[in-house]
Design brief:
heterodimer; A: Arc Repressor Mutant, subunit A; 6-stranded mixed beta sheet; 5-stranded antiparallel beta sheet; 24 strands; about 30% helix; B: alpha/beta; FAD/NAD(P)-binding domain; 3 domains; 7-stranded mixed beta sheet; 5-stranded parallel beta sheet
């Protein structure tokens, strides 16, 4: 069986892995971090863009529109929350209106359905809390929201259930082409063979490409800071609210999340350090100020739960860099609308491999459905009671803010891809993601991880590496 | 559906005191629902002493104080459901809860006492810039790790916020061999009790840096240090005053928030200042038959007052169940801003009433004054009043007679 190595387990690597798990292939995903979804996938705007933003004919436009069409189906197969809430790009003056008309035309030419510029009365009817100063808006009913790391985890999980291997803590340090194929080596001396290699390494994809002698592009990180608010504020707006884009970029958006919170951001600052995911006081102040301009009476930042920073992988070509040469595939420079494009990029990469001579034989056992062990949260009271009767752990609530049971946490530690640390449990179950941010449930979650993984309590980390929670026993 | 005359949500000091008081007032069909696997609430992890001075005239540890009430709950055979989480309550007093033996179930109650306590304000709410490494804990989580689990979060500590739990943890971590480098407080005064500043900081030479905050967090995996800075009178960091402190642990003690999600689900109106329900002198909320007491009503500094308040709620619920709680008037209580809030916020029948309050800043040589129209019905001079210390005024029935509105204020 042919071996395919995927470098990177962000949403792009994850969707590619799932796509390839349909076929009789030996697919291995190599991830340098201790969990999946740790790069740009972990922290972004969580938007499925309608597709009016990208330039006509660009890879971004094609992938975005196609991906946006596929997303609902993919999410339904993977058990991932998806809400088609529609988006509104709001304008404040005639200059904005002209730009919105231009975007509307571009969107139509890209194949986006239902686009329309609407006037103040209709805008206010759709979004009563929008700023009184907004005079018009571009309404894109196909815009949607999805949780990027939930999608990534579910996608990798489904791929693993279908036979894909995930190797964590494997940082590819060199790639060698031999007669028998590629040899990937990690810094600590581990080696792996592959017939085909897919580079989905996010902000490091230029570094990976260079290992094969491909110096055709550069990727640099662009910081995006966000502020997340309590679910109490989740109904401030129902659509995703963008500002009319200007030379300064797309501006700050205000959007509900699929989990019912309100998300505001991102800032946009070009960086050099690919590891610097710190927030800045200036950035946070700027984004909060701008977000408040969009909402009449401002955004209730007193109800902030957390702020965070993500790094977009910005390529130097102005477009996604997706190509293949001698069995090595780049899926690089996947900045916005990368999440929206992910399902389409996966299909496109499959085509590239096929064109490169990889024979694809459908796997009879492939199951596109990823059923969580129990869909506990969405279950009715009767269904929940049946689940609790079979497994009492589902009746024990560990995270009080988000009402997450021990059963759901154990499921996250036991299912593909297994949660190994506190943040891993948090991303999979939302335990610790509520208003107390793990203050109550943290120690319980640590105990569950220690017990399930058979490690000492002291060895449990927040997010792998040296991120320990306790340093030892008391006196 | 199960029915109960009285359901008490929470088995901490407030819930237990309320249950005992209701039982002693004749209520037999009652139930305490507690989400933890034992009674006692947050007192279980408060192994320091200082509890019960007012109540019992002796210094008890948290678990000892809780045990006095738990023992009584057991003697009276008051039913308790442990490891049971209430998911929802409705305006018509249907309680939905879950546990691993019953699954999800509902109880229709004649009266409900809310006694869910409070939780700590998390780091996220502060929006501190920088990285997000491990090593940052709320003071309460650190207290749980040290006192209940027997593990040390770290050995070089900075504490942000001088709330009581932070002060207690400064001492606790020091006793366990950690070095507490500083306690930073954003305000020009501490929100903690004077006795805790003396016994937990001064006795151990731990510096309290007033008008200081943490402006940056360093370290990608585990915390490596924090940058602190002075703040001006508008609480903005002053440029040039930044100071780096190497540490592996940052504890946050930046305020407590009454945990009122269930209260809101029932449609009870909350007070914007306290974060708890608006109540009358019986601690009855605006919804008849739903009572609130303890830290879920407003954050207390002494558990002794929690017990006292819970007993009022317990007796109030008992009277309500007997049909004796009939409002005969509606006297509202207002404040002048120097007094931040009062509990209760209204009085609905004749009788003596104790009104608890907090001030909004540190004041010296002021007279606590209660006016009913133009008449001063109470006045007492205080040498010092601070936000960290709850005060109480006893108003007698004769003074309250005929009052429509009371205004609590500080006068010279």
């Amino acid at each position: 069986m042919k071996k395919v190595a995927i470098i990177g387990s962000g949403v792009i690597g994850a969707m590619i892995a799932r796509e390839l798990s349909r076929y009789e292939l030996e697919v291995t995903v190599f991830e340098k971090e201790s969990d999946v979804a740790m790069g740009a996938t972990r922290a972004n705007s969580a938007i499925v863009h309608a597709g009016f933003d990208a330039k006509e004919g660009s890879m971004k436009a094609k992938m975005n529109v196609a991906g946006s069409f596929m997303m609902e189906q993919v999410c339904s197969e993977l058990g991932v929350k998806y809400v088609r809430n529609g988006s509104l790009v709001i304008g404040f003056n005639d200059e904005d209106r002209a730009e919105l008309e231009r975007l509307c035309a571009r969107g139509k030419s890209n194949g986006v359905e239902g686009l329309r510029v609407i006037e103040k009365t209709e805008l206010k009817a759709l979004e009563p809390n929008i700023s009184d100063n907004a005079t018009c808006a571009l309404h894109a009913p196909t815009g949607a929201i999805v949780c990027p790391y939930e999608l990534c985890i579910a996608s990798i999980g489904n791929a693993m259930d279908n036979g894909v291997k995930l190797i964590l803590d494997f940082e590819v340090a060199s790639i060698e082409r031999t007669e028998k194929g590629f040899v990937l080596s990690s810094g600590d001396g581990r080696r792996a063979m592959a017939d085909y290699v897919i580079n989905a390494a996010g902000i490091y994809s230029d570094k990976i490409a260079k290992m094969t002698g491909d110096n055709s592009f550069e990727v640099h990180p662009r910081r995006g800071e966000y502020v997340l608010l309590d679910r109490e504020c989740g109904s401030t707006v129902s659509h995703t609210i963008f500002r009319t884009p200007s030379k300064m970029g797309k501006g700050i958006l205000v959007t509900p999340t699929v989990d019912g919170n309100l998300l505001t951001g991102p800032t946009s600052v070009d960086m050099e350090d690919k590891e610097d995911k710190s927030t800045t006081a200036q950035g946070l102040a700027k984004l909060m100020g701008e977000a408040c301009e969009n909402i009449e009476g401002g955004v209730a930042y007193g109800k902030t739960i957390t702020s965070f920073c993500g790094l977009r992988a910005v390529g130097n070509t102005g477009d996604f860099i997706i190509n293949e040469k001698a069995g090595f595939v780049n899926a690089a420079g996947i900045e916005s609308p990368g999440l929206s494009s992910a399902p389409a990029i996966a299909l496109y990469v499959r085509e590239l491999l096929e064109n490169a001579g990889l024979e694809l034989i459908s796997k009879k056992t492939f199951n596109p459905i990823r059923e969580p062990k129990h869909r506990f949260r969405e279950a009715s009271i009767e269904e929940k009671n049946e689940i609790i009767a079979r497994d009492p752990a589902y009746g024990r609530i560990i995270c009080r803010c988000e009402t997450i049971s021990e059963g759901e946490i154990l499921d996250a530690i036991r299912s593909n891809p297994p949660a190994r640390d506190i943040d891993g449990v948090k991303r999979r179950t939302r335990a610790g993601m509520g208003r107390c941010q793990g203050g109550f449930c943290g120690p319980y979650v640590m105990e569950l991880i220690a017990k399930e993984r058979g490690i000492e309590f002291e060895k449990v980390t927040k997010a792998g590496g040296n991120s320990t929670m306790v340093i030892g026993k008391t006196k | 559906m199960l029915t109960k005359e009285l359901v008490i949500i929470g088995g901490g000091p407030a819930g237990m005191s309320a249950a005992i008081a209701a039982y002693e007032d004749g209520i037999r069909d009652l139930l305490i629902i507690e989400r933890d696997d034992s009674l006692g609430g947050i007192l279980q992890q408060c192994i320091h002493n200082g509890f019960g001075l007012h109540r019992f005239g002796e210094e008890l540890t948290g678990p000892e104080y809780a045990w006095r009430y738990e023992k009584r709950v057991r003697e009276l055979n008051i039913p308790v459901m442990l490891s049971t989480m209430v998911l929802d309550i409705t305006e018509d007093k249907v309680v939905t809860a879950t546990n691993s033996s019953e699954g999800i179930f509902q109880i229709k109650a004649k009266a409900i006492i809310l006694a869910m306590g409070c939780r700590e304000r998390p780091k996220g709410a502060l929006n501190i810039a920088g990285h997000r490494p491990s090593g940052i804990y709320s003071a309460g989580m650190a207290q749980k790790l040290v006192n209940m689990k027997g593990f040390m979060p770290g050995k070089n500590v900075v504490i942000l916020g001088s709330g009581d739990i932070g002060l207690i943890m400064a001492r606790r971590m020091t006793l366990e061999g950690a070095k507490v480098h500083a306690v930073c407080e954003l305000m020009p005064y501490s929100g903690g009790l004077a006795r805790n500043i003396e016994q937990c900081l001064n006795d151990f030479d731990i510096p309290l840096k007033l008008s200081h905050t943490v402006v940056n967090i360093h370290g990608k995996e585990r915390l490596e240090g924090v940058t602190i800075a002075k703040v001006d009178e508008r609480r903005r960091p002053v440029e040039g005053t930044e100071e780096f402190i190497a540490c592996d642990t940052l504890l946050l003690s930046v305020g407590l928030i009454p945990e009122n999600e269930l209260t809101k689900s029932a449609g009870v109106t909350l007070d914007r200042v306290t974060g708890g329900a608006l109540v009358d002198q019986n601690r009855q909320t605006e919804i008849e038959g739903i009572f609130s007491c303890g830290n879920v009503l407003h954050v207390h500094d002494l558990v002794d007052y929690v017990s006292e308040e819970a007993e009022i709620a317990g007796r109030g619920a008992a009277a309500y169940i007997r049909g004796e709680l009939v409002p005969t008037k509606n006297t509202t209580i207002k404040t002048d801003g120097k007094i931040r809030y009062t509990v209760p916020e209204r009085i609905t029948s004749d009788g003596d009433v104790s009104v608890y309050f907090r001030v909004s800043d540190v004041f010296r040589d002021k007279k606590v004054t209660v006016r009913s129209g133009d008449t001063i019905i109470y006045q007492k001079k205080h040498l010092k009043l601070a936000p960290g210390e709850m005060e109480c005024v006893k108003l007698t029935a004769d003074k309250l007679r005929g009052a429509n509105e009371l205004v609590f204020g500080l006068e010279d």
